[in-house]
Amino acid sequence: DLADIGVTGLATMGRNLARNLARHGYSVAVHNRTAARTHQLVKEFGGEGTFVPSEELAGFVASLKRPRRAIIMVKAGAGTDAVIDQLAELMEPGDMIVDGGNAHYQDTRRREAALREKGIHFVGTGISGGEEGALNGPSIMPGGSRESWEALGPILQDISAKVDGVPCAVHVGPDGAGHFVKMVHNGIEYSDMQLIAESYDLLRQALGVSPAELAGVFREWNEGDLGSYLIEITAEVLDQVDAATGKPFVDVVVDQAEQKGTGRWTVQSALDLGVPVTGIAEAVFARALSGHPEQRAAAAALEGPALSGVEGRELVEDVRRALYASKIVAYAQGFDQMAAASKEYGWDLDLGAMATIWRGGCIIRAKLLDRIRAAYDADPALPTLLADPDFAAELNAAQEAWRRVVTTAVRIGVPTPGFSSALAYYDGLRRDRLPAALVQGLRDFFGAHTYRRVDREGSFHTDWSGDRAEHPA
Ligand code: NBP
């Protein structure tokens, strides 16, 4: 019998996705470049459902029902191109190639265009949730054609996470839209983690409390507005004690954060689109700063403030509020970036639906996403999440605490680039007049770049090197 769907690339993610499909009753063709992985999967998990193994890619393709549905789960980059080229040779018009790896959305756009010429549907699909999600229900963000969604959607929704019975999988939009949205998801994940790390660092330094005590604080926060997977696992990590030394686990881990690149991609794309994603950028840069031990050692003798702590536990509640407010800013910026890309590439993204598919399965799943969904339901053309009446009320209520947190951090010398830049963004956006007017004046002075006036239409230039009279440009 021919298989319903196939998975090629059976490392951690591919294997678990294949098992997830099989457990949902689909017969799954399985293939891996190194055949040992394929045999291992069937041997270990063959009892979970129907697997149709092939050692060669040709056999894999031949074992699929038409139109064929093949998911690629290989290392992103050259490996993906190699597998696509081989599959495309073996497939026919109407068949579907799903790339579930972490591809760059521009690669996905390129691949989709090339395969479309051959009549093959290329479905660049963001999948979030790590190995656990792949097995038990990830958040799935497929791009590609409408027709491919009709053939794949029911299966993807079946194996995805569900929240209140709603699947965390929708058709995101054409070509690279799925991988773009996955990229922004990861960017937001970076900023979420940075803000959590700043909260931990500031509270620990300012109040002198232990990681175990802070685990309790995060556990409590998880019950409220901040409720989310990342807050939940922060408590777990802070509670962990190193078996070898008896010290808190966080104290034996080298403090240099690594990255695989999706945060950097998000910021690079945001620069091109002209969208300020300061929360994500600060998170990427904070990881980069941590990763320069030679500079850190050379700067270690620089002086900090005399004050190293504060009295009173009021700071805990202030940090909770600052974290929530900064998180709203980071999400607002990420959603702005999706809106800008949607316009640039003609994707027609439904922003509220993006919030829906991130509610379960993925790393940034959080209570906040229900609120974001509601904000876009109330006004699909919302210019910024900060202007949603409910979020605005919360930000207004949090802003004094937010300022106290940033002030305390500055006074005791704890770096909080996430909190500080989010607050600066908030203050920048709400400001009636910005010093951009002076920047325009300077640009006109040295480069005759011209400026517009508040009181008249048109562009103007002042003759700075002459009589300083203004002329229409
Ligand atoms: P890896 O990213 O570690 O890739 C290993 C797989 O790629 C193996 O099956 C390997 O085959 C295959 N492969 C390579 Br490498 N080069 C190949 C080539 N030229 N031709 C054919 N196959 C090739 O696997 P993973 O961690 O399971 O992740 C798979 C994808 O999912 C990646 O794009 C990843 O970024 C993405 N992703 C991962 C996570 C996660 O939490 N790990 C989450 C979301 C998305 P071999 O066995 O023959 O070497």
Write structural notes for this entry.
It is a single chain. 56% of the residues lie in helices and 9% in strands. The protein is built from 20 helices and 12 strands. It has helices at residues 12-23, 35-45, 57-62, 78-90, 105-117, 130-136, 146-159, 177-207, 211-221, 229-239, 249-252, 262-273, 278-290, 293-299, 314-345, 351-357, 368-378, 389-412, 417-430, 436-447, and strands at residues 5-8, 28-31, 51-53, 69-72, 96-99, 121-128, 139-142, 162-163, 166-167, 451-452, 459-462, 470-472. Strands 3-2-1-4-5-6-7 form a 7-stranded mixed β-sheet, with helices on both faces. Strands 10-11-12 form a 3-stranded antiparallel β-sheet. The longest helix has 32 residues, at 314-345. The mean pLDDT is 97. Nicotinamide 8-bromo-adenine dinucleotide phosphate binds at residues 9-14, 32-34, 37, 73-76, 79, 82-83, 101-102, 127, 130-131.
SS summary, helix count: 20
- Provide the structure class: alpha/beta
Estimate the global geometry from the Cα principal axes.
globular
| Low-confidence blocks of residues | none
Question: From the alpha-carbon coordinates, what is the Rg to the nearest angstrom?
Answer: 25 Å
Name the ligand types: nicotinamide 8-bromo-adenine dinucleotide phosphate
Q: Calculate the terminal CA-CA distance, rounded to whole Å.
A: 74 Å
Q: What share of residues are in beta strands?
A: 5-15%
Strand neighbour order, sheet with most strands: 3-2-1-4-5-6-7
Secondary structure tally: strands: 12
Helical percent range?
A: 55-70%
The averaged pLDDT comes out at 97
Largest sheet: 7 strands, mixed
